[in-house]
Amino acid sequence: MSQVPVATARLQLRAMAMGDLALFRALYTDAETMRHIGRPMSREWADASLLATLDAAHEPLGPRFFVIVECRCRRAVGLCSMQPVAFDERSVEIGIMLLRGARGRRVASEALSALTAMALRTLPIDTVWAQYRRANRSAERLFDALGFHEIDGWRPRGARPKLCVRVVQRSASQSNQPQGAVPMS
Fold this sequence. Notes:
The chain has helices at 21-28, 31-34, 43-56, 107-122, 137-145, and strands at residues 6-7, 11-15, 64-70, 75-86, 91-98, 127-132, 164-169. By secondary structure, the protein is an alpha+beta fold. The chain has a 7-stranded mixed sheet with strand order 1-2-3-4-5-6-7, sandwiched between helices.
């Protein structure tokens, strides 16, 4: 799964690199950011996790993490990801984490909308899905606004029990073939 550059009017999504360690640490060690995700990491654990994530990104079907950069000030404000945990089911999981100052400014909806569109346009998939804790009302509102919905009885491989799973599927008018993908290094 190659990484393709993604840009919107306000944001650029670029491949995560070792130089993003401070951002990665800030997100994964912050209790407020992690409250709906899991336990906050120690600095050492975050450092090791970034190295493992970057290594996994070199695998053809490995996860892809993107740094969300505000174009106007060129500041990194969060991460979003695609993980082909159920690639044989023609689906990928997406997720997002934002620094506190970027929340409530429609950064999440803009970044995930662009990432979802890019995934459906360039990958041989039919479904993009997300999972979140039911108590995370912000995530529920976000995925509702993006057109994600629940499908009764469908849970992709890799979905954790008791989490809410929402999906968006390729429309009948969209092609199943990648178009114009430009790999990122």
